[in-house]
């Protein structure tokens, strides 16, 4: 890693870091000087390992760590592993989320569907924060950042479980900000719009998805994972020490409609 290193000395744990937004955030934080632990599970762990190797090849410090963020014991083990190998996390990025293809209406969701998405998206963020905060308190500083969604503000039909989980992250962000601010820890969220990723194919041909999104945005281009990573780098960095309990929208102007 070369150039300015505003995050030198920090240890970042990024959940769901194998691909897309999580990978972009992990790479950006590493290039800003942080040692980075890339969380993934299952088949995605190999991708996280490859990205960690890339960061190390660029001169950074990075490891891949396996854990289901909805499993409290697994989160505790992951946090202890990161602390042992890199140091206690001073930055936590809650990016892991359940993949939800299509837009099933609320009445089509089973209780199991609902519980699985809430567990991954909301309970996972709570468990990771709960595990990381004691180390941050001991360090006298910390940054917690969660990835929300404009769906919570738009109230679009379908995917009620996903939308509810992202709305819950906003509330959790504000409560935690109040509770840990005295320890030098800030807690914020990014409210993310339509970011171009391969998974969009579930919603139709690329051209049709682009046309739909661009009609809604003020900025006439598609958002990228790097756009989200840039905002994350600011909120995780030293210049955002007086910013907490905030939900910063990164959506090209969609939500303001």
Overview of this structure, please?
Helix content is about 45%, strand content about 15%. It contains eight helices and seven strands. The radius of gyration is 17 Å and the shape is globular. The model has no long low-confidence stretch (mean pLDDT about 95).
Distance between the termini: 40 Å
Rounded mean pLDDT is 96
Helix-strand topology string:
EHEHEHEHEHHEHHE
Helix/strand/pairing class, anyone? alpha/beta
Radius of gyration: 17 Å
Lateral strand order in the biggest sheet? 3-2-1-4-5-6-7
Low-pLDDT parts are none
Number of DSSP-assigned strands: 7
Shape: globular
**Main β sheet profile:** 7 strands, parallel
Helix content: 40-55%
Q: How big a fraction of the residues is strand? A: 15-25%
Question: Count of DSSP helices?
Answer: 8
Features:
about 45% helix; alpha/beta; globular; about 260 residues; seven-stranded parallel β-sheet; about 15% strand
Tell me the layout of helices and strands.
Blueprint: E1 11-14, H1 20-31, E2 35-40, H2 45-57, E3 62-66, H3 72-85, E4 91-94, H4 111-139, E5 142-149, H5 151-154, H6 160-180, E6 185-192, H7 206-216, H8 225-235, E7 247-250
Parallel strand pairs: 1-2, 1-4, 2-3, 4-5, 5-6, 6-7
Helix pairs in contact: 1-8, 3-4, 4-6
In a few lines, what is going on in this structure?
The chain has helices at 20-31, 45-57, 72-85, 111-139, 151-154, 160-180, 206-216, 225-235; strands at 11-14, 35-40, 62-66, 91-94, 142-149, 185-192, 247-250. The protein is of the alpha/beta class. A seven-stranded parallel sheet has the order 3-2-1-4-5-6-7, with helices on both faces.
